[in-house]
């Protein structure tokens, strides 16, 4: 392909055809400020901050959506350009509440940062403000249209990456608002609570529902025995809240920090991830042997579950009946653990630290009370935990590493890889192979199911039977796979994760979360796996003990009661 | 519609009627329709002219009326205007009217004997 | 078709329909039957004839007599006198402003005489529901000619050579648009007719659709042939139900005659047209927003490039032309590009339809050659300003345009000259304002419009126009501040330079042009808290002229604020602190004693 030659700020630049002026400038080391732009996700030129002067053009051009052309002459730093950018930013700010000091995104707000970068020192424009009130109707997310700058990133993510389209611009002109159709509250919409919108929001116009107060209250309550579980993906991202590099494995510090916060027991969702493999693996083998509904599709991801309930209810029989590891943990904490520790389950308060906003919704699902109580009391996101630690003055990065408590804190590498796309599949294959063949896996790393490609497929030979498996992450990719299933393609087992990259890219993760950060967190996950002495779920001694002491056998009566669930068909609108 | 020629044929047919709306008629035929004219049967003359024009497939001819022309004793009167030429037929009846169309309008022959008497 | 000696054309444009032309029409039919004229006289319903304020209007052929402001009662006389006896009914004729006599022939009226009708050639002349009448007036001959005697490239070349430019706003050369689309890789290609007419006051597109729908269909088929498209869409707003009806009838008839569908004129070329009804969002007139709307998405613009010629409807190469542009196509093909290029000015060829509105005697639609002066349009054709008031300015181009003051009335109107004056041709709206119009208020009106019609996608248009409107609101309310003019100028420049689409980029034009020509009015509002035109209520002060006041007390009786005091038979006084400026006293005073300053 021949390169395109252009001049940016007097510098000769070459770029591949189709490159935007913004990217070409970036490659030449020239930074153009942006606001609505989000690479590959939202390239619509709506904020008009990245304006540049293009010789011959009638007006200034938004560099994020202007493709390079041969001989183009671009100037990114003229008085006219700077003035126009500033004016547009001032206009945006004139319709944004000036309450940075009490805003959940304070110090991590792109608008705030841009105002500083462009040197806005005065609020010259005042007038009417967006007339919409915050929407607290969703169990997972809070919409605050007052703070919305209508960059549309959330809309693009919801419509294109997730293909859910729960929110879209409504009304026109100054009254434009991003909201569910007919301005319905988000809680009534076909929103899957994935929180990808919150992850890309440059301000606090959409953010997780803050439940830290409930956790502080439980911790302060002497009657309560407060136990915490940590999802696999949190250990490779929580450090980012304190300035660490993405993907740094901080498991020991995470445990230490939670103890410092005052949790009575610090457990690990990895434990129930291993347990999930035992249950789900047995379910797969059973369906294969008894001619049950195939392919079997994983059920760990609550956003994915709500998605299939809304959009593909006819495919619900394909879902594994296994609860997610979070919910298995809650059910066991208030039964098995309560028994073992001799604590009244009604005094046990289960907190989860999740990379996920949909987990808040899942914890509140009516059927999630196998223990006779609400299994999980509060699900916090990685971001909320970060805030609590900061509030408590805990200097995360300088903490000495500590170990999880027993028995619900004991896990294998198979449990930890649940945090990344392909991980559940890989963990299942490690166990299924050995259980079906009775042989030890020569190489337990299944690289075909790793990585950030949207849909991954492979086949595994189990004692002469070929097992066709597929992995998808991000709901647009999930749709793709479901269409293939509906189209008759033969799969036996499919892993679907709601969020791009799997849980490491979850809607509750630190902001920013982009493709590169996802890749680094995934690398961290596989590092953590390799560092584990045990890497196969069926070798987890605590899981083995659990079956021996309490559950009996996989898919047994107790499992059925505590670890399995059912689903319901929901409306699309 | 199979060809431009077919369209043109259809158009020619349709134009006959539509030409009433053109202002650049080749010929204007005017019938006097004062009380005297109507009493002398001018209405029938109008109808006869129109019928014959239809039969002859004439277009670019305007058929209009006017009020009393002052020649009451010669009513019904039919005036044919073509360019600067003006011919007035007097004491027209239905048959004469049809002849005027055939001879004068179609063939271009003025029927001298029915025209206004020469005045000295 | 039957032959009749007389045709009575009843205008059934939307304007005349609302002034009850239908009842006039049925009265005419009734009397025609009563007088035994049924076989001789035909009543034809046509599209808009143009002079809308005179409606219901009727033309009687072959004489070409023009009757106006008819009531059903007038029908009897028209039939018994004119249709039967050939006597024109003088009292129903129009007497143009300044004339001392009524005028009978429509072609004797300046309003018609000074027009050159190309786009409107059939509008008001034919029955829009009759494809036969269209064919009788050379309809579909251009399509036949193109298909049987020209290559697609020759058609494109002819349109290029004619110099025809888009009549919907920016004036882009139509032939070039066709050429780009014809050459663009990708298949299928589409022809889209932009019938989302939205400028306040402009209704030429509606008029063409209602009065001559086949001209648009024929042009779209010609375009399809030229660019290699077999499908067209007409995007028409739902507020034009009559246009939609007549288009549907026209499409049906054209299909019946094989003028749409497969193998048109016995060739391999096939073309068909679908109507898409939009909800009348102004922004959907912007081509990329229009395409989004046809595709079923929220109607909002996207950045260009890619242009629709490269990636239009469903990502395929697409020509988008507006109605008036298309209506010009068949005559260009039939009469040849040179004929068309011989009309108009150097860079603006052909004619333009203008919609005259506001303070002008003859409101309605007029079509004149490019290069006709504003004075000819407004005073000769439009008949000047009513009630002896003084002309102040003419606003052209709708909300994206600007106003032109008296000094420039002799400007020949074309794309370039209007741009030079700080306004645009736009779709051809012309709103004439007189001395009683406040120019700040006028700018506010247009800004209110664009503000409400902004799609809300880009920040400068969404928020910037709102802030501008707020500033104008405070100026007209008497709360203007020093620096407001400068702020308006800064916002205008910024929005013009950075908005995403044409709507946003041109939104400040009404403010900029009024600032350019009437800056003193802004200053008077801000500095002196006065509205020189006496239009801004909040800036008026009501006084009683003691010399004229007879002390009748009526004003004090009607004043809702009890602000007027005075003894009987003695001059009254208004307490300006209590006065709420409602104007009731002024309306009621029989002696014109109440004045506003």
UniProtKB/TrEMBL annotation, chain A:
Leader sequence segment: none
Pfam family, one: Fe_hyd_lg_C
Residue span, 4Fe-4S His(Cys)3-ligated-type domain: 80-119
Keywords: 2Fe-2S, 4Fe-4S, Iron, Iron-sulfur, Metal-binding, Oxidoreductase, Repeat
The keyword Membrane is assigned to this record: no
The keyword Oxidoreductase appears for this protein: yes
Organismal lineage: Bacteria, Bacillati, Bacillota, Clostridia, Eubacteriales
Protein name: NAD(P)-dependent iron-only hydrogenase catalytic subunit
GO molecular function annotation: 2 iron, 2 sulfur cluster binding; 4 iron, 4 sulfur cluster binding; ferredoxin hydrogenase activity; iron ion binding; NADH dehydrogenase (ubiquinone) activity
GO CC annotation terms, alphabetical: membrane
InterPro entries per the UniProt record, alphabetical: 2Fe-2S_ferredoxin-like_sf, 2Fe-2S_ferredoxin-type, 4Fe4S_Fe-S-bd, 4Fe4S_Fe_S_CS, Cytosolic_Fe-S_CAF, Fe_hydrogenase, Fe_hydrogenase_lsu_C, Fe_hydrogenase_ssu
Ranges where the 2Fe-2S ferredoxin-type domain occurs: 2-80
Cofactor(s) listed in the protein's UniProt record: [4Fe-4S] cluster
Biological process (GO), any one: ATP synthesis coupled electron transport
Species per Swiss-Prot/TrEMBL record: Desulfoscipio geothermicus DSM 3669
Occurrences of domain 4Fe-4S ferredoxin-type (ranges): 139-169, 179-211
UniProtKB/TrEMBL annotation, chain B:
UniProt entry keywords in alphabetical sequence: Iron, Iron-sulfur, Metal-binding
Keyword Iron-sulfur: yes
Gene3D superfamilies listed in its UniProt record: Glutaredoxin (3.40.30.10)
Molecular-function GO term, any one: metal ion binding
InterPro entries hit by this protein: Thioredoxin-like_sf
Protein known as: NAD(P)-dependent iron-only hydrogenase iron-sulfur protein
UniProtKB/TrEMBL annotation, chain C:
Pfam families for this protein: 2Fe-2S_thioredx, Complex1_51K, Fer4_10, NADH_4Fe-4S, SLBB
Keyword Transcription regulation: no
UniProt-listed Gene3D superfamilies: 3.10.20.600, 3.30.70.20, 6.10.250.1450, Glutaredoxin (3.40.30.10), NADH-ubiquinone oxidoreductase 51kDa subunit (3.40.50.11540), NADH-ubiquinone oxidoreductase 51kDa subunit, iron-sulphur binding domain (1.20.1440.230)
Domain of life assignment: Bacteria
Keyword terms, alphabetized: 4Fe-4S, Iron, Iron-sulfur, Metal-binding
Recorded GO MF terms: 4 iron, 4 sulfur cluster binding; FMN binding; metal ion binding; NADH dehydrogenase (ubiquinone) activity
Transmembrane region(s): none
PROSITE patterns the record matches: 4FE4S_FER_1, 4FE4S_FER_2, COMPLEX1_51K_2, PROKAR_LIPOPROTEIN
PANTHER family given in the database record: NADH-QUINONE OXIDOREDUCTASE SUBUNIT F
Protein name: NAD(P)-dependent iron-only hydrogenase diaphorase component flavoprotein
Organism name: Desulfoscipio geothermicus DSM 3669
């Amino acid at each position: 392909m021949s390169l395109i030659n252009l001049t940016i700020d007097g510098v000769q630049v070459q770029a591949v055809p189709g490159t935007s002026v913004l990217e070409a400038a970036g490659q030449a080391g020239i930074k153009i400020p942006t606001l609505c732009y989000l690479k590959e996700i939202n390239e619509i030129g709506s904020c008009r901050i990245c304006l540049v002067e293009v010789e011959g053009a009638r007006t200034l051009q938004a560099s994020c959506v202007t493709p390079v052309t041969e001989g183009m002459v671009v100037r990114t730093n003229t008085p006219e350009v700077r003035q126009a950018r500033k004016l547009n930013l001032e206009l945006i700010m004139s319709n944004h509440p000036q309450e940075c000091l009490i805003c959940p995104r304070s110090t991590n707000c792109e608008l705030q940062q841009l105002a500083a970068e462009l040197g806005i020192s005065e609020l010259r424009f005042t007038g009417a403000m967006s007339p919409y009130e915050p929407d607290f109707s969703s169990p997972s997310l809070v919409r605050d249209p007052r703070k919305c700058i209508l960059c549309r990133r959330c809309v693009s993510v919801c419509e294109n990456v997730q293909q859910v389209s729960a929110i879209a611009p409504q009304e026109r002109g100054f009254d434009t608002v991003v909201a569910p159709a007919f301005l319905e509250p988000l809680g009534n919409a076909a929103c899957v609570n994935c929180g990808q919108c919150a992850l890309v929001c440059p301000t606090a116009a959409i953010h997780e529902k803050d439940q830290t107060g409930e956790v502080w209250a439980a911790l302060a309550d002497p009657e309560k025995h407060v136990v915490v579980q940590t999802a696999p993906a949190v250990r490779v991202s929580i450090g980012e809240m304190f300035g660490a590099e993405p993907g740094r494995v901080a498991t020991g510090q995470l445990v230490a920090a939670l103890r410092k916060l005052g949790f009575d027991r610090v457990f690990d969702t990895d434990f129930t991830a291993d347990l999930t493999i035992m249950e789900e693996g047995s379910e797969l083998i059973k369906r294969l042997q008894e001619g049950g509904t195939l392919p079997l599709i994983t059920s760990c991801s609550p956003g994915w579950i709500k998605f299939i309930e809304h959009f593909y209810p006819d495919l619900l029989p394909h879902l594994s009946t296994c609860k997610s590891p979070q919910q298995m943990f809650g059910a066991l904490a208030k039964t098995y653990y309560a028994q073992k520790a001799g604590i009244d389950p009604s005094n046990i308060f289960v907190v989860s630290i999740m990379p996920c906003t949909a987990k808040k919704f899942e914890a509140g699902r009516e059927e999630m009370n196998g223990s006779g109580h609400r299994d999980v009391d509060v699900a916090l996101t990685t971001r909320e935990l970060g805030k609590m630690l900061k509030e408590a003055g805990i200097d995360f990065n300088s903490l000495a590493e500590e170990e999880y408590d027993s028995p619900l804190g004991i896990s294998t590498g198979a449990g930890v890889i649940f945090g990344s796309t392909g991980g559940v599949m890989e963990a299942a294959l490690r166990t299924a192979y050995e259980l079906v063949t009775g042989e030890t896996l020569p190489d337990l790393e299944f690289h075909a199911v790793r990585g950030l490609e949207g849909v991954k497929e492979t086949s595994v030979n189990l004692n002469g039977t070929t097992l066709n498996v597929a992995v998808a992450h991000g709901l647009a990719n999930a749709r793709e796979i479901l269409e293939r299933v509906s189209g008759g393609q033969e799969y036996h087992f499919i892993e679907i994760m709601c969020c791009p990259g799997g849980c490491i890219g979850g809607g509750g993760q630190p902001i920013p979360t982009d493709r590169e950060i996802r890749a680094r967190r995934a690398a961290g996950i596989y590092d953590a796996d390799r560092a584990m002495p045990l890497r196969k779920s069926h070798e987890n001694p605590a899981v083995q003990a659990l079956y021996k002491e309490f559950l009996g056998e996989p898919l047994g009566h107790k499992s059925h009661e505590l670890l399995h669930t059912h689903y319901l068909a929901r409306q699309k609108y | 519609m199979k060809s431009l020629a077919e369209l043109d044929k259809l158009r020619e047919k349709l134009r006959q009627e539509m030409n009433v709306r053109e202002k650049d008629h080749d010929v204007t035929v005017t019938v006097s329709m004062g009380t005297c004219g109507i009493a002398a049967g001018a209405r029938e003359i109008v109808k006869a002219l129109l019928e014959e024009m239809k039969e002859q497939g004439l277009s670019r001819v305007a058929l209009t009326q006017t009020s009393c022309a002052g020649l009451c004793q010669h009513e019904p009167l039919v005036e044919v205007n073509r360019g600067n030429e003006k011919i007035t037929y007097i004491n027209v009846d239905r048959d004469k009217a049809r002849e005027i169309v055939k001879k004068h309008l179609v063939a271009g022959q003025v029927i001298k004997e029915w025209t206004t008497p020469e005045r000295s | 078709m039957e032959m009749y000696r007389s045709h009575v054309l009843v205008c059934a444009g939307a304007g005349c329909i609302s002034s009850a032309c239908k009842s006039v029409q049925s009265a005419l039919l009734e009397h025609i039957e009563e007088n035994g004229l049924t076989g001789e006289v035909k009543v034809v319903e046509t599209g808009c004839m143009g002079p809308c304020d005179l409606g219901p209007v009727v033309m009687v052929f072959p004489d070409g007599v023009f009757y106006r402001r008819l009531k059903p009662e007038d029908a009897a006389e028209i039939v018994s006198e004119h249709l039967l006896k050939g006597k024109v009914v003088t009292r129903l004729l129009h007497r143009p402003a300044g004339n001392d006599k009524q005028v009978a022939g429509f072609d004797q009226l300046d309003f018609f005489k000074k027009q050159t009708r190309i786009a409107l050639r059939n509008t008001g002349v034919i029955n829009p529901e009759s494809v036969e009448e269209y064919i009788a007036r050379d309809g579909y001959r251009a399509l036949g000619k193109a298909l049987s005697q020209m290559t697609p490239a020759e058609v494109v070349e002819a349109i290029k050579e004619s110099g025809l430019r888009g009549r919907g706003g920016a004036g882009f050369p139509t032939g070039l648009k066709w050429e780009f689309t014809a050459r663009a890789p990708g298949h299928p290609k589409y022809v889209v007719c932009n019938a989302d007419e939205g400028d306040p006051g402009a209704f030429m597109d509606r008029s063409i659709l209602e009065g001559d729908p086949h001209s648009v269909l024929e042009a779209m088929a010609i375009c399809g042939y030229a660019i290699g498209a077999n499908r067209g869409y007409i995007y028409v707003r739902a507020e034009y139900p009559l246009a939609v009806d007549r288009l549907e009838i026209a499409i049906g008839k054209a299909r019946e005659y094989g003028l749409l569908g497969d193998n048109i004129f016995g060739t391999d070329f096939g073309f068909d047209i679908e109507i898409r009804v939009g909800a009348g969002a102004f922004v959907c007139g912007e081509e990329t927003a229009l395409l989004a709307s046809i595709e079923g998405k929220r109607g909002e613009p996207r950045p260009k490039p890619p242009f629709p010629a490269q990636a239009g409807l469903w990502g395929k190469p697409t020509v988008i032309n507006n109605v008036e542009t298309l209506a010009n196509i068949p005559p260009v093909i039939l009469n040849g590009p040179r004929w068309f290029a011989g009309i108009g000015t150097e860079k603006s060829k052909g004619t333009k339809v203008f919609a005259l509105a506001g303070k002008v005697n003859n409101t309605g639609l007029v079509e004149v050659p490019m290069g006709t002066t504003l004075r000819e349009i407004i005073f000769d054709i439009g008949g000047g300003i009513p009630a002896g008031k003084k002309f102040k300015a003419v606003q052209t181009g709708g909300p994206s345009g600007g106003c032109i003051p008296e000094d420039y009335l002799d400007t020949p109107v074309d794309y370039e000259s209007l741009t030079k004056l700080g306004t645009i041709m736009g779709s051809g709206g012309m709103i004439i304002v007189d001395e009683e119009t406040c120019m700040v208020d006028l700018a506010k009106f247009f800004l209110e419009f664009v503000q409400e019609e902004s799609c809300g996608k880009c920040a400068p248009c969404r928020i910037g126009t709102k802030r501008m409107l707020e500033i104008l609101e405070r100026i007209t309310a008497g709360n203007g501040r020093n620096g407001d003019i400068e702020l308006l100028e800064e916002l205008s420049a910024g929005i013009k330079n950075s908005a995403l689409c044409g709507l946003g980029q041109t939104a400040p034009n009404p403010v900029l042009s009024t600032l350019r020509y009437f800056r003193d009015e802004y200053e008077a509002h801000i500095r002196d808290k006065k509205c020189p035109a006496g239009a801004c209520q909040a800036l008026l002060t009501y006084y009683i002229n003691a010399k004229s006041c007879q002390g009748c007390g009526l004003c004090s009786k009607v004043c809702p604020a009890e602000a007027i005091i005075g003894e009987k038979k003695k001059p009254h006084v208004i307490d300006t602190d209590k006065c709420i400026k409602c104007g009731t006293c002024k309306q009621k005073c029989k002696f014109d004693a109440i004045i506003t300053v």
